[in-house]
Structures are given as C-alpha cells and as structure tokens.
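sanity check this record:
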Amino acid sequence: MYIVDSTVVVPDHKADELISIYQNRSRSVDQWHGFRSFQLLQNDKKPGELTVHMEWESKEDYLQWAMSEEFQKIHELEKHYPDKELANIPPKVSKYKVVAK
C-alpha cells in the first residue's frame, strides 16, 4: 500500500471554507485504478491544519493518477479558488510506502 498526505495550514477562520471545498470534491479519483480511500483530517489542536490523506494499492497506481489529465484539471482548479488567500497556500506533500501492518 502507498499513502500520500498533503497538508496545508490556513488561518483558523478559513478552515471551514476549505473543509467545505473538500466535502464537495469531484470524487473522480474514487474511480481511479488502485485508489483505496480519501480522508480529510483536521488537526485536533490546530484547526487550520488540514491534511488530505489518500491510500493507494501501489506507488505505481498513485503515479498514474498524478500524471493523468484528470489530476491536472483538479489541481488547476485549486489555483482559481475565489479566495486568493487559500489559493496561494502551498501544501506540504509526504509520501509513504506501507512496510508493516
């Protein structure tokens, strides 16, 4: 299994706005080969710290998604959020290979 976490830190008063965006996400990745799950995580002590947690069958499955036109379209939309403060916050992306369960 392969895990990809993408964390952003937004001002606390913007957290609900970003949560709403993800609650209404396109869900196109859900049908992608090798995709297992998506969760949006909110730090319990820092409400403005949000992490997209995605699980994949393999690194190769994730890379196929990351190189797809669909991925490009979705991430291009992020650059055009009406709220420019959110649009300009770069995520910290971490990738993990699951080595034990």
User: Anything to note?
Assistant: The two ends are 10 Å apart (CA to CA). The first strand starts at residue 2 and ends at 9.
